[in-house]
């Protein structure tokens, strides 16, 4: 059986390149933890790549165990200050939480005095919780406790052995965290985190508000294709998922290969940082995550919420333009507010987009108080 697939069969090669491939296997295997085996039989030599071993070796070799020890975090912080005038003056408190066999990394931004409630910051598929530190510090200044988990497969979270990289755990993780937070709970999602926050709020309807910078429903084939680095790549991924789902599930991809990370920002230094940082551009994610993201079956077939919604959408988002979010926003029957951030890119750190985001969030949170609410009801 030909082809590269989980160590079964092989890729046929000529004897003239046998020696060269042997050298390649010796170089690649230690770097990626892959098992590359060169077979020789009477007919022809074959090279097989064990994709399970390759995916198991995706952990970066120079990733710190704490953001406080990470040069990437310090560089990000410096670029925000130098390029945008956005200063993060405090270090979040880092902690770990066991959840379904994962060890979640969580940043916590605590206010001075008693918190008004808790806001869960939800990152997207091109980031991690520490990216939202400027928002967390701002929210703490308003009197809220802000927590920013690294969702499974991303950031410094350590996933359980044998995890299949299923997107379904993202909204479930957010909902479970919300159930155990003190005071009123608000979900705040950036990028794909916006839709994850909305679905998390459907799983836990006691949430008091949802804030999103984008609302992109990746179950829509057109939206999925548009969010990929190239539209043809998005369509090819969907076609591959139908024909060879098991193979796609096992293939690891660096995020900079499949997502347009340079569209995160208008600043060239920050663009370079996103592409080169080992926890973002260098992060390897299996194809299964993207396949299950598209195939995700939400708790409700509509976009209904039991709380108000704020969409604070960047006005110059070339990755996911406003029109992509309006489909979901217009279909949401809940009380809702739209604020377009004048010149904001996907990560809206520009002036005046950043100030407009802060103003919109402050106004949205103001009516939310510590009044008791009714117990949770099942989401149908």
Notes on the protein architecture:
With 380 residues, the protein is of the alpha/beta class. It has two domains: 11-56, no CATH class; 67-219 and 298-365, Rossmann fold. 36% of the residues lie in helices and 17% in strands. The chain has 14 helices and 13 strands. The strands form three sheets. Strands 4-5-7-6-8-9-12-13 form an eight-stranded mixed beta sheet, sandwiched between helices. Helix 13 (322-331) links the parallel strand 12 and strand 13 (336-341). Residues 1-63 and 370-380 have low confidence and may be disordered.
- Helix segment tally: 14
Instruction: Say which CATH homologous superfamily of the largest domain is assigned.
Output: Alpha/Beta hydrolase fold, catalytic domain
CA-based gyration radius? 22 Å
Count of the separate structural domains: 2
Q: Uncertain segments of ≥5 residues (pLDDT<50)?
A: 1-63, 370-380
Shape: globular
SS strand fraction: 15-25%
The CATH architecture of the largest domain can be named as 3-Layer(aba) Sandwich
Classified by CATH, the class of the largest domain is Alpha Beta
| Annotation, overall tally of beta strands | 13
Residue share in helix = 25-40%
Name the average pLDDT.
83
Supply the key terms.
single chain; 380 residues; alpha/beta; Rossmann fold; 8-stranded mixed β-sheet; 3-stranded antiparallel β-sheet; 17% strand; globular
């Amino acid at each position: 059986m030909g082809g590269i697939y989980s160590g079964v069969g092989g890729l046929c090669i000529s004897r003239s390149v046998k020696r060269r491939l042997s050298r390649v296997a010796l170089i690649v295997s230690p770097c990626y933890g892959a098992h590359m085996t060169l077979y020789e039989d009477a007919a022809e030599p074959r090279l097989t790549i064990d994709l399970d071993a390759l995916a198991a070796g995706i952990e970066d070799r120079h990733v710190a165990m704490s953001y406080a020890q990470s040069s990437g975090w310090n560089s990000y912080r410096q670029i925000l200050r130098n390029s945008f005038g956005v200063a993060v003056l405090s270090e979040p408190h880092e902690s770990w939480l066991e959840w379904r066999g994962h060890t979640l990394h969580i940043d916590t931004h605590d206010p001075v005095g008693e918190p008004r409630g808790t806001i869960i910051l939800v990152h997207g598929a091109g980031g991690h919780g520490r990216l939202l530190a400027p928002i967390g510090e701002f929210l703490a200044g308003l009197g809220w406790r802000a927590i920013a988990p690294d969702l499974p497969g991303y950031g410094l979270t350590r996933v359980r052995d044998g995890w299949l990289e299923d997107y379904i755990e993202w909204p479930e993780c957010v909902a479970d965290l919300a159930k155990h937070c003190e005071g009123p709970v608000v979900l705040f999602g950036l990028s794909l985190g916006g839709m994850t926050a909305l679905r998390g709020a459907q799983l836990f309807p006691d949430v008091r508000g949802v804030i999103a910078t984008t609302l992109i429903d990746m179950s829509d084939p057109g939206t999925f294709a548009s969010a990929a680095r190239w539209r043809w790549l998005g369509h090819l991924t969907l076609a591959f998922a139908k024909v060879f789902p098991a193979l796609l599930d096992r293939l690891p991809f660096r995020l900079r290969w499949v997502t347009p990370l340079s569209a995160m920002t208008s600043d060239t230094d920050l663009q370079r940082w996103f592409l080169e940082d080992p926890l973002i551009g260098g992060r390897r994610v299996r194809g299964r995550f993207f396949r299950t993201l598209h195939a995700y079956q939400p708790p409700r077939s509509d976009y209904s919420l039991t709380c108000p919604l704020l969409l604070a959408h960047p006005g110059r988002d070339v990755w996911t333009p406003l029109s992509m979010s309006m489909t979901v926003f217009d279909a949401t029957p809940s009380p809702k507010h739209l604020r377009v951030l004048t010149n904001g890119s996907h990560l809206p750190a520009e002036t005046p987009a950043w100030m407009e985001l802060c103003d919109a969030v402050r106004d949205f949170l103001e009516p939310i108080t510590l009044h008791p609410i009714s117990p949770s009801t099942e989401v149908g």
